[in-house]
Amino acid sequence: MQTITESISENSNKDGEHILMSLTYIGKNNEENSGIELARTLEHWRRYLMEMDVSSAVAINDHYFIQSLEGSRPAINEVLAKLINEYLSVLPHIVEVEEIEVRKWSGYLIKYLTSSAEDEEYTLKSFSAGADFNPYLMKQNQITSFMQSIFEEKGLTISKDSDIN
Fold it and tell me: Which residues form the BLUF domain (predicted)?
């Protein structure tokens, strides 16, 4: 006879909750979404993703952003649906979706890119077109290496041997 816990676990597995996914997308930061409004939006998403058990890394400047999300398959699908349905101005351009064994990101990480020499170095490292951050000019592997470079150097990624799930 099956216990309640086993039954719940079995149903969760049928929904793919045991499968970790990574989704990376790029978007444009509209002019209306700057300053305090941007801070409010980012805080809203930090709380929402925490509730969904989705970790995230965001690189953003005044014009563009890259966001990488990691979590269970159903959670990533729900987050993507929310983005598409509630944030029509974002219009996410999916760069990469893959199953992963462990998460790279811990929590909700944000890197606001400025015109500083350090941030220009990150952009140039990933072979972006020029020193300006524009993910629309970058290939998929450039985007993923860019994100890894920014957050790895700050010691903000989870080691390959750990799993927070």
Answer: 20-111
Cα separation of 140 and 138, whole Å? 7
Give the alpha-carbon dihedral of 125, 153, 148, 110, to 10 degrees.
-110
Q: What angle in degrees, to the nearest 10, is found between the helix axes of 117-125 and 140-153? A: 140
Would you list the domain boundaries of the chain?
Answer: 16-153
pLDDT value of residue 11: 52
E-assigned strands of 30-148?
Answer: 55-60, 64-72, 93-100, 108-112
pLDDT of 163 reads 37
Instruction: Name the CA radius of gyration of the chain, rounded.
Output: 17
Fold entry, domain 16-153: Alpha-Beta Plaits (3.30.70)
Provide block-wise average pLDDT over 10 residues at a time, the chain (165 residues): 49 76 90 73 92 95 91 96 84 93 93 70 56 84 89 58 36
96 has which bridge partners?
24
Local structure of 41: helix, strand or coil: helix
Cα 145 from Cα 125, distance rounded (Å): 9
Q: Report helix, strand or coil for 25.
A: strand
